[in-house]
Amino acid sequence: MQAAQWTYLTDDMYLLDLQQTIDSSDYFVFQDHLKSVLMAFTRDAYVKGHALQVNGAVHCPSSGEEFLTPDFQSDDTGGDNIDNRVPPNGVLPFSGLVMYMAPLAYLYADPVEIYYVFRELYVRYWSKLNAIRTERGTILPLCKLFEDLIVRSSPAAVFHLINIGLKPLDIAFPWIQSAFSGMLDIDQVLFLWDRIIGYDSLELVAILAAALFHFRANELEFVNTREEADDLFAELIDIPVITLLQDYIFGLPKASS
């Protein structure tokens, strides 16, 4: 396999993110599986060809070239020699990547199964959480959806936070970008991801963020610091997300016409 044949400059950066993940007691037993999945992912050119957007790559110099040239043109696939792209998948390492795959280790014993499920999830969904685009389901529209929802459902809490210099999105952005991996218990993360696949929509991530915010709205009106706000949500790691989503959606005030 290419993962065993070649070593890339980006490997150590990917492995740093892996180390941060397996430092958790939830995932350290899956170190070997997650490492093999991660290394295979970095070398899979399928990702660049099928993801909505990848975050760039570096071209290795051919014979006679002296410098590496950064390439962030995600839609430019013509004329590139895929073998000269580092990493071949076009996804430069970033903190949190391994957390998109780690919960799957609780579903599949075979790393091959983990890999193909994770790759498809990344191509269809997680790449959108790391793409600065305007298409529906990408990170910017999801942030806008979150803000619109909390203004409708929790206006007093929003007003209070803004008055003390806290932006609600600053609190919720890590939840949205991570699809709640590492923010909630693993079983609740998987329940959420199951619904994302079922409805084929990442908007559920923004809706859940708004639902959590609404759940703590009364307490948020009395916080004075970011640390106090974060502490309120740290206690909700095991909250049943499906029940919370249902209660929030069915109780959401109708938008005025």
TrEMBL record:
Q: Could you tell me which InterPro entries the record lists for this protein?
A: Rab-GAP-TBC_dom (IPR000195), Rab-GAP_TBC_sf (IPR035969), TBC1D19 (IPR042507)
Spell out the SUPFAM superfamilies in the cross-references. Ypt/Rab-GAP domain of gyp1p
Q: Which Pfam families match?
A: RabGAP-TBC (PF00566)
Residue limits of the Rab-GAP TBC domain?
A: 1-200
State the PANTHER family in the record: TBC1 DOMAIN FAMILY MEMBER 19
Q: Name the chain's protein.
A: Unnamed protein product
Organism encoding this protein: Phytophthora lilii
